[in-house]
Design brief:
- This protein has a four-stranded mixed sheet, with helices on both faces. Strands 4-3-2-17 form a four-stranded mixed sheet.
- The chain is built from ten helices and 17 strands.
- The chain is of the alpha/beta class and about 350 residues long.
- Strand 11 and strand 12 form a beta hairpin.
- The chain is globular and about 50 Å long.
- The protein has a single domain, classed as 5-stranded Propeller (L-arginine/glycine Amidinotransferase, Chain A), CATH 3.75.10.10.
- Pfam families: PAD_porph (PF04371).
- Keywords: Hydrolase.
- InterPro entries: Peptidyl-Arg-deiminase_porph.
């Protein structure tokens, strides 16, 4: 059986999130970040189901009801969590002969940086609670969902700094990682980005913060136009790499650069990884992070509209998410058709 990693823009049953609570890194700013999660849940539930992992079901449902969100398309599943980055501990769905199969890769807190003992078990617990229909396969490989992009046709886009990190799978070299991607995800080819980063990023340059594969051989990517910015050189080199890549049919990818947001900093003066590339594709829509920059936000929405014609483009204020070094795509994991009841 040849697996196929399903593209994000294909039909979905729902989206998985994890609820922010006092035991997460959001503890000091829950009042600021809960509205972001509520807005994401509200928008997703207009189009499909939402699964929320939360240590206390009643508490999460109370906030959802208070926000006027219809719970008929939302399931809150009670379980402990370390944090809220569902993209990286949620299931990765592949297709075997037209049927979905869930892969539960190891999650070790982005290369042993943060505790992940609860988050690493979320996918298994959701399966045990009867949330997921397909078979679940536990994979003896550490890999986060944010580290890979798929066109659904056998192309995997990734970054060498993440997938070749010595704290993830130190026993495997690049060739062996490619063999694993072929065997597990049906990768016919792997496009490696060796350049590009965002200051303040904890993930070792997840590709979903830098460049995204879109339908029709399009890649949307982060571009820095400020020569004085610390990112300028590396992102220019990444742009050159993207220009050299070829689509499965041999043609160059159509590249759409995203605007460069102004620099944002945490209270401790650490630069935050603010990126418009961290959007989520759902049925009939694309949810795009915005950062309270009217002109840049509007331009980012227009860029995504060009990449996904015919879909509703919905901006969601994600500046609070940047405080913990992530954004919209990072806190969500799409669940393709056939995954949910």
């Amino acid at each position: 059986m040849n697996p196929r990693l399903i593209a994000e823009w294909e039909q979905q049953d729902g989206v998985l999130l994890a609820w922010p609570h006092e035991g997460t890194d959001w503890a000091y700013m829950l009042d600021d970040v809960r509205p972001v999660f509520l807005d994401i849940i509200r928008q997703v539930s207009r189009f499909e189901q939402v699964i929320v992992a939360a240590p206390r079901r009643a508490e999460a449902e109370l906030y959802l009801k208070a926000a006027g969100i219809d719970l008929s398309r939302i399931s809150v599943c009670e379980m402990p969590t370390n944090d809220t980055w569902a993209r990286d501990f949620g299931p990765i769905t592949v297709e075997y002969n037209g049927q979905p199969v869930l892969l539960d890769f190891g999650f070790n807190g982005w290369g042993l940086k943060f505790p992940a003992n609860y988050d690493n078990l979320v996918t298994k617990q959701l399966k045990e609670q009867g949330v997921f229909i397909p078979n679940l396969k536990t994979i003896g490989l550490v890999m986060e969902g944010g580290s890979i992009e798929s066109d659904g046709l056998g192309t995997i886009l990734t970054t060498s700094t993440c997938l070749l990190s010595p704290n993830r799978n130190p026993q495997l070299d690049q060739s062996e990682i490619e063999q694993a991607l072929a065997a597990l995800l049906g990768a016919k080819r792997v496009l490696w980005l060796n350049h590009g980063f965002l200051a303040g990023d904890d993930t070792d340059s997840h590709v979903d913060t830098l460049a995204r594969i879109c339908p029709g051989n399009v890649i949307v990517y982060v571009a820095c136009d400020d020569e004085r910015d610390e990112h300028y050189g590396e992102l220019k080199l990444m742009e050159q790499e993207l220009s050299a890549f070829r689509a499965p049919d041999g043609s160059p990818y159509r590249l759409i650069p995203l605007p460069w947001p102004k620099a944002r900093f945490s209270e401790s003066a650490c630069r935050l990884p603010v990126t418009y590339a961290n959007f989520l594709v759902i049925n009939g829509a694309v949810l795009v992070p915005t950062y309270r920059e009217q002109e840049k936000d509007a331009l980012a929405l227009e860029c995504i509209r060009k990449a996904f014609p015919g879909r509703e483009i919905v901006g969601i204020d994600c500046l609070p998410l940047a405080e913990q070094h992530g954004s919209l795509h990072c806190v969500t994991m799409q669940l393709p058709h056939g995954v949910l009841l």
